């Protein structure tokens, strides 16, 4: 038995019983175990078997107890580790399993030699040396949690690295002085701002200054290992310090923000929400650094950062994550308390969202906000316990030991580079001031802050340590303080390794300037020739491998699309949408489509992924449109709205030339991602001057499916619409979705596009388009009445109904049924930016209007009405009245019968018919 991994598990009792059985009858156990115990016996001096059998058994039992002790330290040593800089304030755990008495070894001589098994020991393996090495490694200033990892290779790698190093960094004098310099910058920055801007919020890093050498280690060690880009996501605490001392933001720019000097073109944001990017030099070459912009919703930036990392990796074709790394910096209470952390972890190794390992840093203040104690913040022992769901190693480190911090950072980076998986560093520190600088923590945490105020700073402790070791003199340490204060006062860049040139090759840079300040009305051609459409549609079927067994119903859909491409059959929604993707990838635009059921489509209309009916194989026709095409990616996402939408926002914000689409399974479910919409999608440009071309597909329509399968909450989007921050569209036929999607990419304009897509209209016999609709025209923001076309007929119209979405077809069918000739129905296909001029142009065709109506199927307090009614006030014709369902607390009724009655009533009321 060559693999002795069983010694790492809690198997000692079993092994003792097995060995006793072996002593009685060797042949009663398996041959592999016989061989193992024979080798164990051979390691001891030869003894007379009969009289010494009991003694041999005792020695064998002692060996197993030593193995059990080693295993206990690996599993539980972190509980006794000295990870808390507050010392006696922290609750100390006594772990009996780490005591010799627990294993019956208290009477064994410390000079007794034992087999340490897989424990990596360089000294002679006496009991004393084994214990000393275990305590040095596992109960020092670092607590290592990794025995929960299921992969034995990862576990072995960590054991060897940690145990051979005895959990300590091997640093030269210059490296130790560099750490002191970084701590000096971290502390000096906060002290300078505290004096210069008294009482202003900055969410300082006091107490957690070791974060700066940690990040610098990741940057420079990462540079040596070939990393070329790092994207960081973090909340408030320490952000200004990181901006200045890591990302090289000029101090003068920060001072102007403290003094209120901002660009008034945009609404802007507070300084501790802002991001930055720069290029720094490392031994491995230039490194591009990005700090993502982040609102006060703390952990929501984590999936946004991951999306940005994935976009950069895809751009570089960095399949192993060797070039681009994501770093996520968390607070302890938020890490344990906010569900988006779990959602983001769940994406870590999935096909559509993995970023080949993220390094998570928890700035563990040991208090949530200012008042929340640990017992009120979580139900777990550590704030990091949620990371165990993906078998991530977790390193708890005392923030007052900068060298330990540097060491775990080195190990974490090496692990990530080796295994391309997430790793967590729990930086156990404290907050020297309150939640913010105006806060008084003694009101709620008097004992904790009594200890904190008696502690010397991390920098002071480390400077004394280096002075005692002869690494620096006391005068040298003082010189660092003065030098940094001078650089800060001058308002320039305080990082000595910053570069002015870009560290990214031209082909890897994103160029957003072409999209800045562009009007949404642009003359572009979104049409496609009939020959090209026919060729594309035929290849959807002809390119399928001959032996690929397609589901019969799906094959009929594809064959129907071939007929549509030839003009032999009216085009449905799936055809128009898929044709848009095919033409875009042919033209060099990548397409990324994700959602919980988007491969097939929730309502079985898309079928962008074909499944072999007898083998676990897939075929994606849009990946085989032509020999030279851009990438088409479709992902059936994890069951999440918040994290997935945030990821796609991050991706789209980093990649302007990819059509990035997120589709809700039902539009109602977007509620679970509202924070992403409010804090990023609708306001990111105004707050942070960041453009984004993300598209959201939200299936919407009152189909009698109840309150949770009807409404994508259109009212929320029209309420958020301002300053041309987004497009809100409700296309009503296949050609419209075709032209709209092509418009989104072809024009030099990038804003989020919110699309309220249909459900029943996907197969509605009237919701179709002709081949000519694709070869000519454009996306029409307003569609005139399709039945009333000549001037004489338009002059007879007395009532005009304006509407959007599915209700149009209900109105159309009812009008045709009653042969009404004095009622026109106009569709608003774009609700924002509101097409005021286009609507006026259409309304002028109807000079004899007596009544104008906005008709919506949503309740009057929901839907578009309250967000657009002020748009009609400037028109000369009669006031617009709203016809809708009555005000309701829920979006829809639960009874299909009641739904149909209400729908019929509002359609009749809009048309002027008796109910």
TrEMBL record:
Domain of life: Bacteria
UniProt cross-references to SMART domains, sorted A to Z: Transket_pyr
CDD domains xref list: TPP_E1_OGDC_like
MF terms in GO: oxoglutarate dehydrogenase (succinyl-transferring) activity
Cofactor(s) annotated in UniProt: thiamine diphosphate
Enzyme Commission number(s) from the entry: 1.2.4.2
Designated name of the protein: oxoglutarate dehydrogenase (succinyl-transferring)
Organism: Thiothrix lacustris
